[in-house]
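tool_call: predict_structure(chain=1)
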Amino acid sequence: MSSTLQNILILAGIVLLVGLGYFMYTQNNNSTLESNSVNSQAAAETAQFLARLKNLEEISLDAEIFSDERFTTLVSFTQPVTPEPYGKPNPFVSGN
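tool_result:
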């Protein structure tokens, strides 16, 4: 390939890249976020969150049950869990 043709192709590639970059830059500045759909969705989610928050704030917990005799006299019948080895023994280890 001759050096003149090679220089023309390199110059055309640079001009194409600059043109593409300028086009992308101007498109980025002209684009705007469609905030109508985002705002309506955010408003719906906010209303749902506030309704759930109101329901949670209305809950009151009474800790008096923990001092009740029926609760304090409970007996635990749990048994301790003994640790067991997990997995299978390695069949490739020679047993001595």
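agent: The first helix runs from residue 3 to 30. Proceeding to next step.
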